[in-house]
Amino acid sequence: METTQMSGGCDEPDSSREVDEQVGHYDVPLCPNRLILAVEAVRGPGIALALLREHLQLRETATMVFSAYSDCFFLRLDEIDRFQNRRVGGLEAVSTMPFKAGEIFKYEVASWTVSDVAAVEGMQGVRALTALGLIPDAP
């Protein structure tokens, strides 16, 4: 899977795309892109990963990557988080993580005010907010 590691946020690929092949990593799919992009647009770059780390009690080695091939985000975990962190979900993580991540981000979206949403300026964020029905589609 060809992926781009994200540096803090979801808009700009990290220039250090090389992954240390000595260290095992496991990619677990996340929720729909529009939720992640909306959270990043309203709260700032890196907040999606910060929310996942906080709610799932992930180690600092956890990152988010975007796969251009599958057009979606993945949570990249080390072996400890992938198989020993009960909040990740063990063997079921691949099928349950999209729902867990979705709930974390939906909870965040529910805390936003009208002024939070109105402050978004980037086209990618505006499209994500429109897809979520948080702002009206432009005529």
The number of distinct β-strands equals 4
Number of helices: 6
Shape assignment: elongated
Q: What's the SSE pattern?
A: EEHHEEHHHH
Biggest beta sheet summary: 4 strands, antiparallel
| Poorly predicted runs of 5 or more residues | 7-22
| Mean of pLDDT | 85
Helix content: 40-55%
What share of residues are in beta strands? 5-15%
Distance between the termini: 38 Å
What radius of gyration results from the CA coordinates? Answer: 15 Å
Strand order of the largest sheet: 1-3-4-2
Task: Characterize the structure shown.
This protein is an alpha+beta fold and 139 residues long. It contains six helices and four strands. It has helices spanning 33-43, 47-56, 79-84, 93-110, 114-118, 123-131, and strands at 3-5, 26-29, 63-67, 72-77. The chain has a four-stranded antiparallel beta sheet with strand order 1-3-4-2. It starts with a strand and ends in an 8-residue tail after the last helix.
